[in-house]
């Protein structure tokens, strides 16, 4: 009887150990959207593999699915959104998500293939902006900075089209899905866009924006985002540190931004800090 009990206990222990090993061996799944961010994460994943940490990079074609997949536990983390976008997503969906590490801070610019200066922008010109609440606010603030529109006082990054209180040139604002803005550039007179997207598409010089936003706004730095129940997972934190510290990742980021370091910054390096948590 004792022997059978010991055998059962031993089998149970082996089963638990096998489950534990399998869980540890499962790849860390990081969700991204195609483009420069994905390229840098792919490089980090290759480096992680060489260090014994298996990472699977999962690409999504839109800006909604990565958070849904993360909340559904199909991902361990995602890397595609800044804090403003995350705050809005959590507010609208109730997903238990939070930022767990800082990534790239990209400028946003106003681009055109039809004009060389804002003075050339004609009455009724078509201007493309992102259709999601957060990125649209950033684009509208940039249009206001250019003197093309005026927004309701105090609206800030939450600005939407309805917050435009003055549009002297009667510009026609066209809402377009964020990742598709780069493809819309030839169909409009002016478009909001991220330099990295133009660099990846190879259709326009990413440094040719008529106006750039500032590069020191940490609120718009891309975040590594996880669920609240796995935010402190050692494997995830290890991967974030590797991403931030890898020379190969930094070289890929530079390459993805057309070797133009004016188009982005790496906030975790500020003040000599190698790692930085979100604020």
UniProtKB/TrEMBL annotation:
It is found in: Membrane. Keywords: Lipoprotein, Membrane, Palmitate, Signal. It is a lipid-anchor. InterPro entries: Lipoprotein_NlpA. Residues 1-25 form the signal peptide. The keyword Transit peptide does not apply. Gene3D superfamilies: Periplasmic binding protein-like II (3.40.190.10). Belongs to the NlpA lipoprotein family. This is MetQ/NlpA family ABC transporter substrate-binding protein. It comes from Azotobacter bryophylli.
């Amino acid at each position: 009887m004792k022997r059978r009990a010991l055998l059962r206990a031993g089998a149970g222990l082996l089963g638990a150990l096998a489950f534990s090993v399998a869980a540890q061996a499962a790849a860390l799944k990081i969700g991204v959207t195609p483009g420069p961010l994905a390229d840098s994460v792919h490089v980090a994943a290759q480096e992680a593999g060489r260090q014994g940490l298996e990472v699977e990079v999962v690409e999504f074609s839109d800006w909604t699915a990565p958070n849904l997949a993360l909340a559904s536990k199909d991902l361990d983390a995602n890397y595609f959104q800044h804090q403003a976008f995350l705050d809005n997503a959590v507010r609208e969906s109730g997903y238990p998500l939070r930022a767990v590490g800082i990534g790239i801070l990209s400028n946003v610019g106003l681009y055109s293939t039809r004009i060389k200066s804002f003075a050339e922008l004609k009455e009724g010109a078509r201007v493309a902006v992102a259709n999601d609440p957060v990125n649209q606010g950033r684009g509208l603030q940039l249009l206001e900075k250019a003197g093309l529109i005026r927004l309701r006082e105090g609206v800030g990054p939450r600005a939407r089209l309805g917050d435009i209180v003055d549009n002297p040139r009667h510009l026609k604002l066209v809402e377009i899905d964020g990742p598709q803005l780069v493809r819309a550039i030839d169909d409009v007179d002016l478009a909001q866009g991220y330099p990295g997207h133009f660099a990846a598409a190879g259709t326009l010089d990413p440094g040719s924006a008529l106006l750039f936003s500032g590069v020191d706004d940490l609120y718009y730095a891309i975040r590594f985002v996880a669920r609240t129940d796995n935010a402190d997972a050692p494997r995830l934190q290890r991967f974030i540190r590797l991403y931030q510290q890898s020379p190969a990742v930094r070289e890929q980021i530079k390459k993805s931004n057309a070797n133009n370091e004016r188009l982005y910054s790496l906030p975790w390096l500020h003040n000599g800090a190698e790692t930085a948590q979100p604020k």
